[in-house]
Design brief:
Largest sheet: 7 strands, antiparallel
Number of domains: 1
Strand order of the largest sheet: 1-4-13-6-7-8-9
Low-confidence stretches: none
Distance between the termini: 16 Å
Number of helices: 0
Radius of gyration: 16 Å
Number of strands: 14
Shape: globular
CATH class: Mainly Beta
CATH topology: Jelly Rolls
């Protein structure tokens, strides 16, 4: 089955075959609801260009890509995401994801506020995930640069979907984020 990616609020990304490019200009808020609303002590606004998948039915999905960041400074923002698995939680926070914070890569899992340190961010990495969608839970196996780092599990709150692209706050410079060799497919049905 072939999957289509949908724009998540902010336009401007480019696609050629299985390569996706996202470009954020420092100081330009994203176009999603609330992107230009400050959160005291956290950020003045959010910048974003992201794509999202269809809602995921029960089964196992593989999402993988080689990710490269091109910017004047390696750590181009205090916080930025490389991948998120969402499920329409009321607070809008993704139950799973790969976040770079202050130059360190973390796996996040919202249910119990898990933040698993992976490594320093070097500007390039290969990400592979297996997303297991069950009736009452979603688990994600993370393989980064060929190393099986962890499997994190959360309660299912509605149907999950995948988001990737450039999403950050407290930026220090412009950034281009490139996802090459992107693969997304359903490997089995539960």
């Amino acid at each position: 089955m072939s999957y289509k990616w949908y724009e998540s609020c902010s336009p401007g990304w480019k696609q050629q075959d299985n390569t996706f490019e996202f470009y954020l200009k420092k100081g330009t808020p994203g176009e999603c609801l609330g992107d230009n609303t400050p959160m005291e002590g956290k950020f003045e606004f959010k910048e974003r260009q992201e794509l999202m998948s269809d809602m995921l039915d029960l089964g196992t999905y593989v999402w993988s890509a080689d990710v490269e960041t091109i910017s004047d400074k390696l750590v181009h923002a205090k916080y930025f995401f490389l991948l998120q698995i969402h499920d329409k939680r009321p607070n809008g926070r993704p139950p799973h994801g790969i976040q770079v914070r202050d130059g360190d890569i973390f796996l996040i899992q919202e249910d119990d506020d898990t933040e698993l340190y992976v490594s320093k961010y070097k500007g390039q990495l290969s990400i592979a995930t297996k997303v297991h969608v069950k009736r009452k839970s979603v688990s994600v196996e993370y393989i980064i640069d060929g190393v099986n780092v962890a499997t994190l599990k959360s309660k299912a709150i509605g149907q999950p979907f995948i988001k990737f692209g450039a999403y950050r706050w407290n930026a220090v410079c412009d950034v281009k984020q490139i996802y090459r060799n992107l693969r997304f497919e359903r490997t089995n049905v539960s």
